[in-house]
Amino acid sequence: GDSVTQMEGPVTLSEEAFLTINCTYTATGYPSLFWYVQYPGEGLQLLLKATKADDKGSNKGFEATYRKETTSFHLEKGSVQVSDSAVYFCALSGVGKLIFGTGTRLQVFP
Amino acid sequence: DVKVTQSSRYLVKRTGEKVFLECVQDMDHENMFWYRQDPGLGLRLIYFSYDVKMKEKGDIPEGYSVSREKKERFSLILESASTNQTSMYLCASREERGRGETQYFGPGTRLLVL
Asked: What is the least distance, in Å, from the CA of A39 to any CA of chain B?
């Protein structure tokens, strides 16, 4: 069945460092792909999404490109801030529902 | 902005109690979802509903039931709470299947079953 695999965390970075969180997927058909973020004590918020191959989603300095050839949707940011510390979830649209990865915790230190 | 609210942020219940978790959305969304979130397991779908009085089992429905009597409200029921149901519960809503896949989440209810 459809599935999402994310790199395990925590990812620990200094402020202004470059961020990559890897996400790969297995799916039949052509799903939409998502990154959600969960700040401490809160629910999930949509960060960005891409609906077809080669689409790039972007928001708040984060970017991810839908790569069909490598079945990947890696999240990147050029310069992280302490306020980016959160748990990041990659997800794909399955049959009527979202399928989530296990989440990657990002910790950014000043 | 879409707003999804959950009745409690924190709950403590005893084993065997009947537990109700309430979720309300204010955007007239057709679809609603209940997930549980556990460390290392991500989010797992418990139940979902495409419309009023409709419900579908998700991946882990055992020990849970749901109720959707009104479009804006989706309730998760633990008929007899057990310690392995200690978890974070997240509710979400979506406009309509096939019209944008984005789900909007509430803040979550952290349930502790003693």
From this structure: 10
